[in-house]
Amino acid sequence: MSTIVSLPDQATAKLPHKSYLNEEYGLKSWLLTGDHKRIAILYLISITFFFVIGGVLAGLIRLELLTPPADLMSTDTYNKVFSMHGIIMIFLFLVPSVPATIGNFLIPLMVGARDLAFPKINLLSWYLYVIGGIFILSAMVLGGVDTGWTFTTPLSTHYLNTHVVTAAMGIFVAGFSSILTGLNFIVTIHRMRCPGMTWFRLPLFVWGHYATSIIMILGTPVLAITLVLVALERTINIGVFDPTKGGDPLLFQHLFWFYSHPAVYIMILPGMAVISEVISTFSRKRVFGYTAVAFSSVAIAVFGFLVWEHHMFIMGVSQYSALVFSLLTMLVAVPSAIKIFNWSMTLYQGSITFETPMLYAFGFIGLFTIGGLTGIFLATLGMDVHLTETYFIVAHFHFVMVGGMLMAYLAGVHFWWPKMTGRMYPEAISKLSAIVTFIGFIVTFFPQFLLGYLGMPRRYAAYPADFQVLNVFSTAGASILGIGYLMPMLYLPWSLIYGKIAGNNPWQATGLEWQIQSPPLTENYVEIPIMDHEAYDYEWLANKTVHEVQTVG
Amino acid sequence: MSHISPVLWEFLVNWLKRFAIFPPEASTIAPYADALYFALVGMTITGLLIVLTMVVVFSIRYSKDRHPEAIQMEGSTLLEATWTLIPLGIFLVFFVWGALLYFRIFNAPPNSMNVYVVGKQWMWKVEHPGGQHEIDALHIPVGRPIQVTLISQDVFHSFSIPAFRVKREAIPGRYTTVYFQATTPGKYHLFCTQYCGTQHSGMIGWVYVMTPEDYRAWAAGNTSGASLAQNGERLFASMGCNACHSGNAAARGPNLANVYNTRIRLTDGSTMVANEAYLRESILNPSTHVPAGYAPIMPTYQGQISEDGLIDLVEYIKSLDSNYRIQQMMNKSELSSAQAAPVGNTAQAQGVAKP
Fold this sequence. Notes:
The complex is a heterodimer of chains A (553) and B (355).
Chain A: E1 2-3, H1 27-31, H2 36-64, H3 75-94, H4 97-111, H5 119-141, H6 155-158, H7 164-191, H8 204-236, H9 249-283, H10 290-303, H11 319-347, H12 356-379, H13 381-387, H14 391-421, H15 427-454, H16 468-498, H17 538-552
Chain B: H1 6-18, H2 29-61, E1 70-71, H3 77-106, E2 113-120, E3 123-127, E4 133-135, E5 137-141, E6 145-152, E7 157-161, E8 166-170, E9 176-181, E10 186-192, E11 205-210, H4 212-222, H5 228-238, E12 263-265, E13 271-273, H6 276-284, H7 307-319, H8 322-340, H9 346-350
Parallel strand pairs in B: 2-6, 5-11
Antiparallel strand pairs in B: 2-3, 3-4, 6-9, 7-8, 7-10, 10-11, 12-13
């Protein structure tokens, strides 16, 4: 059972005459498109826009924290900046990042379909996203919102005079965008698989997105309801969360985290989905323990709904319920461990090359392992008491969200860039950017673990001078990280014109999407393919390549 | 080295002096928390090393140059079981360990000194039963178990003392408690760690852990003259509570003597323990839990009494309980006897004299 994969077919590659990119021209053809690939590009552009805004805000936060007093901006401004950073990065970048761009582009291709089940709903979900984004941007431009991304009541309902309702509306609307995307994915994966594409022949990318979609559909409505209640409480004072009216502020915490904990799995599962594809492709080997990886995604989605109270261990919940939630949180950590070990084991006996997506994937494995294991600190009840609400939390979720998810996102963007655009990104500089990002990340966020154990509270505009040294490290790292993110934003657009022609399958990957032209036709497949092999079947690919050469010769 | 630049040198030296990666251990809980922390750090490093070793070794050994042909394989149930069960087992160990610590932090021993803390935008208001009031400061004696009862007047706050490794949210409309016992005299950070609005980062203060003698001197020199219970008694009279809660058998309201911490039968047949939360709730929303045998005639005091006033009233009702009074007295005498031996009469006069 060995496979030798031939050289990429780049030397002779030509851009196809007709593709989804040149089928039609003009702004209207993009804004009214039903093509999942064009909608993916629309998403790619819009989430990059919001990522830049969120990133600039992050830079401002780090600059303010360079010195102990609140000197760069007032505490009020700082509060607005970190709130906006959180709201934009979570609801407008991380949640839609991989599913709405890469997932949107690839799921129909991977299941062998011509489009998603509901192309118009897919377009609608992009418009909802943009409308949500406009609400949030207008909340920012009109004077900002300073609730934090968590909208904690009664602070958000009775004690702030900022644009809370506008921002909440934005999240409410953007939430529907993610519900509709999830719906589209589930229906497509259930109903539109090509002949021969059984559940266990699906690429793990599709499994990951299936699990994500379940959470999107079941979790997001709860967030929507919660935000409506916050808005009603603010405007007509209904008192659901107000103890003086018989309400309970803890109810808000329960409702909010019932969505917002599963939401972290909305953010990380698609990233894991990308890593499975990348690791398999660049080690030329089937993902080790395919079924274990597939079911661990589903397990994360299911258990993810049962752990929300671990955000509230010190909030006066019953000590016995805290026990239950701590135990369940320990359980949800196991599927992630299973995935990490299976990816590592995939490398065993492989034939590994180190292209940029693979470097990002290695970065993901390292950083996500740290991020995941530090989560155990927080699931451990007695430790959580000391660590929660400090910079330890900040470091932990940035390791998972930025170190994990953003690395995976960049791995995915680089990996499928040739498929999306038909051109290669420049390899050397992109490898450099992967390394710069990794180093910058570690320097930025590792010191925050130490700060957290020292007790530095999060969301502080000013802090005691004892904490300065580590904060200076963190800010220095953030500037390196910024450079790391800036580089792809420059060389990727550059490659649209100057990049080498990619050809159909530059990585010699096995997925269906790599067997068609790059960029694909609007209808994806001239003929609906018939899946006659397992996912990640490199022998099939080798035979197919041999076969092709023979017919051409 | 100093030839680089004296200013820069000075700066570096100052930095290094301030550079800390570990908070002081100043409570009985801290060593337990730190032991757990180091175990968790050990687990993280081990886990990371295992994963890194796999990735690095396989990357070198099976790079395309050395290993041009990938060998396909399906997976292995044995391996899957291994890396499911071993991490699960390790995580469960931490679950039990963490739970034990958690119960220790939040269940104070019965002989604890009680201190009330009210969080409000943006200050910590500390009320000692003896009538000492402090803002953004907490003076406590070393070696005594302290139970802090927290409540918030407005939004969520969180009462955090990193040197003690404890933290507890102050929640509007609900008492929460946290317990600690300081081991080392000194001055430690007190933070609000739950984002509470504009001046969140200004809601910080100091915890002063004092030797028993120093504490006694401080307590004597800083009392407002009236204990919380005495304030409560005054409030009780001025709000007209005693009109109904007069203690007579024929009174319209229940007798409040010896009611604290007893089980009360309600009109709907259920029972509740008359703890602090029940007493507070019965003042604010009397009709929700009416004791059996009484008509729901008491008006609500919602919005008429501040959280400080409620604490005074609760403390007054508690002081009507003989067990509680005895406990309070024992606390006081223990504290005095602890300092009685070494201290003559000098410390009391000065209040700051250190042995």
